[in-house]
Amino acid sequence: MNHTFFRFRINIGKLIRATFLLAVISLFLWMFIRIFIADYFSVNTHSMYPTIKPGSTIVVNKLIFGGRIYKKFDFESEELNSFRVKGLRKIRVNDIVVFNYPFDDKYTRIRFKINYVYVKRIAGVPGDTISIRSGFYKNNNYQGVIGFLDNQSRLFDVYSDSLLPRKSNRIFSYYKNSYGWSELNFGPLYVPRKGDSIKLDQSNYSLYKLIIEHETGKIFSEDTEYLYLGGNRISEYIFKGNYYFVAGDNVSNSIDSRQFGFVPEAYIIGVVKWILSQ
């Protein structure tokens, strides 16, 4: 009797160890899949309507652009410290991507927030020049239609700039006040590409101010004649990273790069591959 009971206890121990091992392996596989292969997000806004309806679940394919690996796991930090594994291809115009919203609440600096994510369509990749005319996006390097054309046509039969919801912030106010741009008529605006240089002066530096301050860790200042960065006079800048111009398909009701500017490449989580509507 004692011998049988002992064998029973041994089998229970094996079962516990096997269950624990299976749980560890399952957790590892779950993390591996979400980091390197695919992840999913719920959408609760109308900004990508009708392509993505509120209540939909979107699945991001991380193999396309490559998974993002954190070097540090201090998610309270406002700086993103990561690298990206090699993907199958680069981001393209008309890709729909999920990304971390890249700015602080006052739009005064680029800031990483791990759980604050947006989904938008890529309207411009590094090196492109973007403009919007009557709500329709134009890209100097892309001849096709950007976004959801039928939805735009229907909306802009009834909308004008004066009827659009106001989404004013520091960046958009500069666009509007300095250039007369609006959500429906915007640009042309160059999208920064790593290694490209741009001439800077008092009239255009604010278009790239947050990017340059983020890349250099220095602050802009100006007088009546010259522009300074960190106390040194500057008239030209070479970008250290790639950036993207993103847009919502629901053009009349979307907060996107027209309001908050460019998205750093490192902040892109992945490309949306599947849309699971309710």
* Helix content bin: 25-40%
User: Which band does the percent of strand residues land in?
Assistant: 25-35%
Q: What's the rounded overall pLDDT mean?
A: 83
Number of domains: 1
Counting DSSP E segments of at least 2 residues, the number of strands comes to 17
Shape: globular
Distance N to C terminus: 59 Å
Which runs of at least 5 residues are low in confidence (pLDDT < 50)? none
Q: Which fold does the CATH topology refer to?
A: Umud Fragment, subunit A
Supply the key terms.
278 residues; alpha+beta; Umud Fragment, subunit A; 7-stranded antiparallel beta sheet; 3-stranded antiparallel beta sheet; 17 strands; 25% helix; 26% strand; globular
Overview of the structural elements:
- The protein is globular, with a radius of gyration of 24 Å.
- Strand 12 and strand 13 form a beta hairpin.
- It has one domain (2-196, 239-276): Umud Fragment, subunit A (Ribbon), CATH 2.10.109.
- It contains six helices and 17 strands.
- Strands 1-2-17-5-6-15-16 form a seven-stranded antiparallel sheet. Strands 8-7-9 form a three-stranded antiparallel sheet, with no helix packed on it. A three-stranded antiparallel sheet has the order 11-12-13, with no helix packed on it.
- The model has no long low-confidence stretch (mean pLDDT 83).
- It has 278 residues and is an alpha+beta fold.
